[in-house]
Design goal:
The complex is a heterodimer of chains A (308) and B (440). By secondary structure, chain A is mostly helical. Chain A contains 11 helices and 4 strands; from the N terminus they run H-H-H-H-E-E-E-H-H-H-H-E-H-H-H. Chain B has 2 domains: 63 residues; 311 residues, ABC transporter involved in vitamin B12 uptake, BtuC, CATH 1.10.3470. In chain B, 68% of the residues lie in helices and 3% in strands. Chain B is built from 19 helices and 2 strands.
Amino acid sequence: MPESVYYFIQQLLNGLTVGSTYALIAIGYTMVYGIIGMINFAHGEVYMIGSYIAFAVLAALAMMGIDSVSLMLVSAFVISVIITSTYGFAIERVAYRPLRNSNRLIALISAIGMSIFLQNYVRLAQGSRDIAMPSLITGGWAFGPEDGFQATVSYMQLIIFVVTFVSMSALTLFISKSKMGKACRACAEDLGMTNLLGIDTNKVISLTFVIGAALAAVAGVLLGIYYGVINPYIGFMAGLKAFTAAVLGGIGSIPGAVLGGLILGVTEAFTAGYFSSEYKDVVAFSLLILILLFKPTGILGKPEVEKV
Amino acid sequence: MKSLRFAPAALSAVVLLVLTSLMLGIRMESEGTSLIVTSADSETLALIAAGALVVFLFQLFRSGIDNSLSGVKSVIPSVSPDKLLSMTKGKSTRTTLICFAVAALMIWPFMVSRGAVDLATLALIYVMLGLGLNIVVGLAGLLDLGYVGFYAVGAYSYALLNQYFGLDFWSSLVMGGMLAAFFGFILGFPVLRLRGDYLAIVTLGFGEIIRILLNNWTALTGGPNGISQIPKPTLFGLEFGRRAKEEGNVPFHEYFGIAYSSEYKVIFLYILAVLLVILTLFVINRLLRMPIGRAWEALREDDIACRSLGLNPTAIKLSAFTIGAGFAGFAGTFFAARQGFISPESFTFIESAIILAIVVLGGMGSQLGVILAAVIMTVLPEFAREFQEYRMLMFGLMMVCMMVWRPEGLLPMKRPHIKTKKTRSEPDDEVTATPVAGGA
């Protein structure tokens, strides 16, 4: 095979790696939107907080002299997910619940305020400079010609694929099989009616925020280790990209969020690989505008009927 | 006691501890290649504990606190611009009052320091931006999170037109406004069909696209280094520098035969800003009385009703979007002229959020409120310089708190309306009661 094929495969792999983490974050947007119809603008910051906590845990374990990589990874995931979910729960309680029945714009502005608050809270607590960590997992498989361009799959990329796949499957199982998942689906269908039927919708909404935050934390841990550098501002762009992914796939639909995340990640990787990495954000947002123009409901979204 | 709820109170305190534990409670620092985690100083830890205690006690006595607070809430006066203006009965008194206010604004800078005038100019730029965004967000109800993109278009069009074609401030002011409006039109045309929150994200993406383009198109815009040495505005060709920069121009102080002072330039810029704000206010107030202004507000209140009455929502939204963008362009051109230097750094999302916060704080749709909020937002940080670090934190918190407790803003907008006078002094229910009694 010619070298260009390996280059293509490499870009595709990089795109799928980033795309699957976008998908994880996008699920948080899409679930919240599906149930209460608001954009949780602070979701990107939740992802950023997940990264910070993972870094703290990993650094603390390294200082204690624990060098088993699997133990470090598992504890980073568990602690980060627990604390970040608490953030998701608290954000909904403080900033969104009092506004449940008000205008959409009012809830969105509150969410933007929350996002600015969280970003600066982390900045004040941990400083605004980049925090770097030596890479935890190194190495990978290379394939391709010995003397030319080789496509590589690093072990970290592999871990990202596996963890994303496991989390998605767990979520799908939860939503389709468990009682709470059924309640979630009912709420997405008709919130008022579900409430009338005796389901505690407040609990379901809280749960949605917790699940979204937990998945964002998973993405935060993965991307944090993958890139090795974090700062308080990474949440803004990641959140925006993930929202783009959610809209791309059709907001409110979980498979749509996954599809949108993968498409966005691959598009970005190809733009960066073949054109210029500076313009990859421009391409991502242009893609969003184009999709909204020609298919406002997204790829897998259901058309929303406006009722008087 | 029923009002004491231990379990929820303890839960909130625990939640607070969990939230702060690995964030405020630790410090991460890079040391060489590895990352070091230390626990925060004892002062911070004590603060966290105190915070948890406060939350616990607050939740414990919540019902009691709520009761006493509800009394306080009603004490807060709801001042409306309507009331303020109704104090000045009659059109002539109102005009006199406005004239006095304008005169005071004009004379004031000659009596205070240069720094204060400079700050006031900055506040006026934000007033202009706030008023422009108020059309889009407050009146037409379209959430525009990329407003700073149009501001950037205005600023860069003056800088570039001057650099490449040598256009002066005055013609660029018109061009900058028109170009920004054109950008608004081009963007608005496709996206205004979208529902409110999609629109917010698309405009946000658009603002980011503009910033990234400005940052990366180094050949044209100078990239992150920006454009410097943008000339200041002139007064009918009179420059405000010590010596005229262009051949044949006469500096202001030589023309009038007075001593040179750098203050003239600052005061001139200030007066220019005041005039621009007055122009903005005038245009917006005229527009509001035109059918188009009424249509904006009607559309904000009910999209479907508007459509069923034969109004074209897209055209109405587009007009609001374009006009709002145009005002951002004016403000941008003036900003470029005042700074003399612009770079993409000045046009980040935070700037959009600040302008949005001005509109929200002032009360969506209320022009007096927006002016007040813009002044507060620019002047307050100057007085609280030692809290500079916490500025954005407070800012985010304020946005959330305003939305939760007072979503209508500081000075809520009140529609001008006429109350029909009752012909008789009898209360209403007596009138309605009579026929019932007659029927029985």
